[in-house]
Amino acid sequence: MVKQIAVVLGAINLDNQKRILEGMEIGAREFDCNLFVFTNYVGTRETEESIMAATQVLKLPEFDKFDGVVLVPNTIHNPYALDRIVKELNTLGKPMVSIDRKIDGMSCVSIDSYEAEYEMVEHFLYHGYTKILYVSGSLVASSEARKRCKAFQDAMVNNGVMFDEGDIYEGAFTMESGIMIGEQILAEGKQPEAIICGNDDMAHGIMDVFKKAGYQIPEDVKICGFDNGERSQLDRPSLTTVDKNQREVGYKSILEIMELLNGKDIDYYTLPCNMKYRESCGCTPQPDDVLSLEELMEQVKHKYIMQQRDTVFMADVVRGMTADFAKSARPEQLFDVMKQYVPQIGVEKFYLCACDVDQVFALPERNLGRNIDVLDVNDDYTEYIDIAVAYENGEFVSYKKFPKGFVRPEECRTKSGGNTFVVNQIFYHNCCYGYAVCQRVDSVVASGLYYSMLMEIGVGLDNVRQRMLLKDAVDRLNGMWCYDNLTMLYNRSGFTYEAKSMMDNFRADDKNVFIIFMDADGLKTANDTLGHEVGDLMIREIGAIVHKNVSGNMLGMRYGGDEFVLFGAYKDGQEYKVDAVVESIREDMREVNMSGKHPFKLSASMGVSKWRAREIDSLDAVIEQADQKMYQEKRAKKLEAAKKQQG
């Protein structure tokens, strides 16, 4: 049986996480297991929407459905979401591994970032530099930032070098925060000999600022980072940094899961970091640790060509898909559009897993007088998932609805091992529409445009939902204009509108038309003695009988109060059909009365008027004549009742 491993790893588009995942993939192929990576995309400008979406995907996995779990806590920046996951995992008793943070009940694979940062500080001190500034990541959000900052402080103190708290700057592990801090240092007029940064991105940002200001690196100021990101070798000067051995960390985490599955006890592993002393600190790098100018140019050229190809291609896909989404009025139409574009994104397997469509796109009973933005939305994954799009090896396949905890249908989870599936949420406007599962292809899944595509799917589904709500509201408004709310028969406005075109057709076919005018007997008595709710019930029962007897080219109308109209046509020699309708109505009333289910008896006075369609300009005269005949019947009933009372 192929083992299924859940991996909770945020922001796999970042260098650090990419390398961890690359190591995990080596392990997955070696041990023939499948990885399901629950992740999100991190851009340079995070919004409230993107932060909510990043948290949303963490609600999806039901970890008891997996054989093991690898958790990377430092990539989950929502402490509440992380606490919830840890508490859930602690109840499972499954093989679990945490990366870079010890958690009770889990094995741990980590690097000694404290020792590495301590060694980096001593490297600068060894060369005689004491005027050192430190740029940290968020000391509130990141335990790694706190650990590395503590290493800086301890190394300075233990080596007898004084420093001020103002020598420590707090960034956010982003290039943008490095740029801001670099500009701040220059504005403050400080002249540091060296700047040690808690990661490479901040170091690159500071290097760019100082170079633009005319500083020579390393002659005027030495700078180093931490992570050994891809750009660290490409920059000139090349960046001194710390290689965190992340591929080995990722591989070791999968190896540990497999050993735990075989009965091994939990354990803790600390892997060494590798120091990369390069040009930005004044050192001469090792020959195999920095690219020659020719190698650099070739690598930059190759990377540029690949990025241009992937970016232009994916951008075209996203643009075309977005334009076609705008034509979709139903979710099913949008899913059909998706099928046109999925084969173009260059993946072997892709699944668009939609939250239960009937539930998410259900129209509320009350959809008038309310802002669409405040209508109830589906803010979590539904218990059952619809596979809206399933693409496998060049073909679209179908799967039945399945429980959400399995992520993919259970029958396709066991087909083969050694695969990595990336799972991202489809979430927009506070509404959870589902998630996408993609077999990992680095050029696709690491691309920001892939995540733009997922965002556009969410936007498209949200637009469809709002369009459906608007149409429903318009339909309801139209219904209020042309239907009687109590009986859902036509009111006068609706009847007049519909009857006009019917009359035109009846004239063209040279038919006869009829009006049956009904007046409910005893409604006033029912209202006065039994209450208006009972009176309304009486009206609804008569309305239901009218509905039942309206067939073919006929219309039923509540004329007003206790009066009803039936309108239709008949051919020459078929007057009996009109009489049959009248008798059917009376019979239906008798059946209701015999049931004994109401505290009233149904009865109605009726008048019938018949005319040649081409001989009348409007139905008003026909209705008036039928009304007069109805009153003749009603008066006759009253006289008959009076005679019985006297007798």
Number of helical segments with 4 or more residues: 20
CATH superfamily of the domain at 111-248 and 263-294: Response regulator
What is the molecular shape?
A: elongated
Record field, number of beta strands: 22
- Termini separation (Å)? 93 Å
Describe it for me?
With 647 residues, the protein is of the alpha/beta class. Among the domains are: 111-248 and 263-294, Response regulator (Rossmann fold), CATH 3.40.50.2300; 492-646, 2-Layer Sandwich (Alpha-Beta Plaits). The longest helix has 35 residues, at 448-482. The radius of gyration is 38 Å and the shape is elongated. The relative contact order is 0.08.
Short description:
With 647 residues, this protein is of the alpha/beta class.
Structure keywords:
single chain, 4-stranded parallel β-sheet, Alpha-Beta Plaits, Rossmann fold, 46% helix, alpha/beta, 647 residues
